[in-house]
Please model this.
Amino acid sequence: MRRASSLTFAAFALSSLAILFLAAPVLAQAPTATVTGVVRAATGEPLAGTAVRLLEARRATATDDAGRYRFADVRPGTHTLEVVSLGRVIERRTLTVAGGESATVDLALDSRPIDAPAIRVVLDRLKAVGSDARAAEIAGSAHYIGPEELAALPNLFDDVHDALRTVPGVYVTEEDGYGLRPNVGLRGTGSERSGKITLMEDGVLIAPAPYAAPSAYYFPVIGRMEAIEVRKGSSQIKYGPRTIGGAVNLISSPIPETFSWEAELEGGSEETGKGRARIGDSSEHFGWLAETYQARTGGFKRLDGGGETGFEVQDYLVKGRVRTAPDADLYQEFELKLHRYDEISHETYLGLTAEDFEADAFRRYAASQRDLMDAEQDQVQLRHFLRPTEALDLTTVAYRNAFQRSWYKLDAVLGEGIADVLADPAGFPEEMAILRGADSPDDALHVVDGNRSYYGAGVQTILGLRFDAGARHEAELGVRYHEDEEDRFQHADAYRMAAGKMVRTAAGAPGSASNRVSDARAWSLFVQDEIGLGRWTVSPGVRYETIDFRRTDYAGDDPRRTAPTGVRENDVSAWIPGVGVTWAWREGARLFGGVHRGFGPPGPGADRDTEPERSVNWELGAKLDRDAIAAQLVGFYSDYENILGRATLSSGDPSAEGDVFNGGAVEVAGIEAAADLDVGRLAGLGFGVPVQLAWTWTQAEFRTGFESDFEPWGTVEPGDELPYLPEHQLSGSVGIVRGPWDGRVVLQASSAMRTVAGRGPIPDGEGTDAFGVWSAQLRYAVSPWAQIQVGVENLADASYVVARRPAGARPGLPRTLMAGIRLAR
Model:
């Protein structure tokens, strides 16, 4: 069925390309011009994200990280260029172009009567990096994946794993092939449910309950994001509570400075479709944005007996803004952000035995036919920006996130956990037969409704201060109060298998499988200063976290929660210092290094003997950013005093109580290398040949021995390697950008990973497969406002094991094709 669907789509794609080639000469009859340039502030620095309008053509664009703008297919004649900031025209230029001409018009804002560009720069307090140019200046490892980079990825399902693989030092573990619930780690932290990184959207914690239950069962859709930022090293201690590996910040679509709209529609194999629409505008005092993202697929796995294996996602975003005039004595902005996410996905924790995977990697056992995730998330943010003086600004955000999910999924058969059965199928022949659809007695299949609700709410404020006191200072002081909660109210139903269909034989009472509430209250404070001393930049900082945890348990037969059966409270606090240093060796080249304290809280309900995760983290590296080359080489070392593991059903623990385990001392060392260059520009070819490379080498070992019930660790001896950390990771791409054509080929590769701690050769059944997956995308600009594109992921249709948790082997995405059109004005 998958083959037939792919052939149908291939015919559609080829027909589309044929029409395109026939239409292109007609569309190109009249020669047009191209207008490009750079917008700079009075100081000479490029202005990113500034609106540039071509009035007569009724077209607008925004400058990129280097302040560049570009208008293609401009009709010959006289045109007016305008630069717009904060709702006002701050520069205007008239030009005349002829057909076939390429005109360059740089716009230097020599006078700033209303200081709008300076205000625009300091409005970025909620960004972790801000731009490629800023990433090169930060005293630490920093990466910025902007709109152009995201659009160039052949990322058909907008899987954040694909985007983050382009950043060295980021580790991902696939699960469902679509990235619905990403597993992301940084510098050896472990990737389980992205629970050991600081995950943010627009500078605000976005995991369902970042302190009480950090496992990210909700992850923002990157298909609606403007950019992704990654901070590692000492520079990321301003983002917490977890400071060992680093922080990932997702930047949502901004309110445009001029009226603009965008629409995108794609379709492809496996009954897949996705659409995105965005519209917005600004005036001097008001601005607004409305956006929606919709995606669905029938799924690439084949369920025994038939049935759904895909998903449907609906995502909505609205923003509104009001502000004073840019030249007001006291400039202020208020921005309200409202977001809604709904998901229905037929996802399961039940994988395959090695033998069944070899026969058909995309099979799903009959016993997973009832598995279903039903989730929804609501987000509210109110941001206030105040700029009393040119040297002082204050950004305050009040926020609340609410997430609710019901994940109905199989967890046991004949009383045996599915992870144990899949790990030893020969030892459980009767259980395996039932999983595959054989008739069973009543109550043979145990299906848990993982009904949980979460919320996270708080207020955070950042004060920015710029001054000279023998050196240039860019200081920040931040304070946050945050509270969050995880409410588990789960039950389990029993089924029998009859003629390949599951029939419910017993219904569980609400709350009978798990009935508890975990919550956290936290205050955090950070101070960080960027001190400029000639060619040196020193960035000292310190963070303080104080957290009160509580876990309240109720009896399974007490759904009204009349009396708790136990209350466990624990608190933790930590000072987290760090310092980074950068030396401007020569123009565009910097050396940097840093050291900082790593911290990770244990969570509610932890035993008093459970220690927080602590480490000392070092990095030393070099950055190059000049002409058409940007590169970074970093060595890092993390010395854990104590590493934590959290037992969940997704990690293979059948009890799934979320208990925390101490793992003792661990050492993680590695090298990160990244390069981004345009060979075409360097060679003077007259067209672009963008090349991107990212490589990571990692060595991570336990330094102490212990025994645990935590499935990925088990019995550990000193020198054992950590699971789910590949020794080598590679991401690379090469493209050609010529006129209206833009084509890219991408390779993502990884060495095999252990799924259980150990040393030496990886035993059969205790590791993932090494893989190298090729993908490609071709785009053609039919007109200045319309573009069509065709993409293929996994060109060779490679079949490989990406994970063996929580139960059995799981495949990566097979060859998948999509084509679509994008309209923008």
About this structure: The longest helix spans residues 2-27. The domain at 249-824 is CATH 2.40.170.20 (Maltoporin; Chain A). The CA atoms of residues 38 and 68 lie 4 Å apart. The longest strand covers residues 472-498.
